[in-house]
Amino acid sequence: MSSSGTKEPIRIVITGAAGQIAYSLIHQICNGDVFGKDQPVILHLLDITPMMGVLQGVVMEIEDTSLPLVKGAIPTDSEETAFKDVDVALLVGAMPRKEGMERKDLLNANVKIFKSQGTALDKFAKKSVKVLVVGNPANTNCYILAHYAPSIPRENFSCLTRLDHNRAKAQIANRLKVSPENVKNVTIWGNHSSTQFPDVRSATVNVNGKDTPVYDAVKDDNWLKNDFISTVQKRGAAVIAARKLSSAMSAAKAICDHMRDWWNGTKDNEWVSMGVISDGSYDIEKGLVFSYPVQIKDGKISIVQGLKIDEWSREMIEKTQKELVEEKNDAVKATSSD
Ligand code: NAD
Ligand code: LMR
């Protein structure tokens, strides 16, 4: 707090700031929807040099929103300026996939961005910086970023699987004709890819004031084990096929949900999904960036322990882990050769 009793501004870097996700994201941050209605912000907006003209337009629009929490908006193509003293890093800037591609097809093009930005983060950001990687393939980009930022604590790194989490809630809510807020404790395990395991075995839905296991409420195990899972796994591709662009509005909303929960904590007895650096929980390779069920208190993320994993779930989890190990090995090769 400053002497006047108002909070000091926090510095937030948004990369890919001239892109489509950033365009949906920036207003929500400036409006206090993520870090609080009393939390002033200074935005560091990074994009590549050819996008500086477009970025100037974004800055004009930020000014024109006339929002009182905005204490500065710094457009830049310099990683040093972008990462200097930041409290929060939202790493969106990367190439999006086109129709027919898997997210891992972006690996060669995008992973080098995260090597370079990891090095800059390590050098210039606050050591307490909270980092969220959005650019795809998000888990593996986060792995590389963290590798090149060794001075920042491992628990400060995360990648976005909240969009998948929200998609899973929405599918269950639609099926049961209830509001998504009534669906709790879904889990996305593993990679933000078509091997992810959207798991509702511990999830509940509030029907007529009573929390009921999703399996009991849906009463269709076949749908839950097949169509539900593949719809969530392939939702990103379905949006691309329809829009000819990858999801942006829902991605920006998920970024806000992820960061708001990290900043303020999760509700008692509820968890959310986040890609975090594995500590070996649920027999996942230590160090992989893996999506887990997590709870957050006082800014500290804890992986929910003790959930029952049956044989079928173990196979689903193994499959997504295997893909992440392969991606990690490819990414390490791609970044060590330059
Ligand atoms: P976009 O093409 O509209 O914007 C990306 C921006 O990043 C562009 O302005 C580009 O110039 C910029 N950029 C490229 N290289 C950069 C660099 N080195 N430094 C800074 N900026 C750079 O794309 P988008 O729709 O905003 O999507 C961005 C990324 O987010 C894509 O990789 C997409 O696949 C991914 N995404 C992830 C999720 C998720 O849930 N994890 C959801 C949606 C999209
Ligand atoms: C999504 O899940 O919508 C994003 O990761 C974009 C994509 O490539 O699917």
Automatic annotation (TrEMBL):
Q: Does the keyword NAD apply?
A: yes
What are the alphabetically sorted keywords of the record?
NAD, Oxidoreductase, Tricarboxylic acid cycle
Residue sites binding substrate per the record? 97, 103, 136, 167
EC number per UniProt:
1.1.1.37
Biological process, per Gene Ontology: malate metabolic process; tricarboxylic acid cycle
Q: Name one GO molecular function term.
A: L-malate dehydrogenase (NAD+) activity
Domain Lactate/malate dehydrogenase C-terminal spans what residues?
A: 161-333
List, from the UniProt record, the residues annotated as the active site of this protein.
192
Query: InterPro entries per the record?
Result: L-lactate/malate_DH, Lactate/malate_DH_C, Lactate/malate_DH_N, Lactate_DH/Glyco_Ohase_4_C, Malate_DH_AS, Malate_DH_NAD-dep_euk, Malate_DH_type2, NAD(P)-bd_dom_sf
Annotated NAD(+) binding sites: 47, 110, 134-136
Top EC category: oxidoreductase
Q: Where is the Lactate/malate dehydrogenase N-terminal domain?
A: 11-157
UniProt catalytic activity: (S)-malate + NAD(+) = oxaloacetate + NADH + H(+)
Any Pfam family hit: Ldh_1_N
Give the UniProt family note: Belongs to the LDH/MDH superfamily. MDH type 2 family.
Name by which UniProt lists this protein? Malate dehydrogenase
The organism of origin for this protein: Adineta ricciae
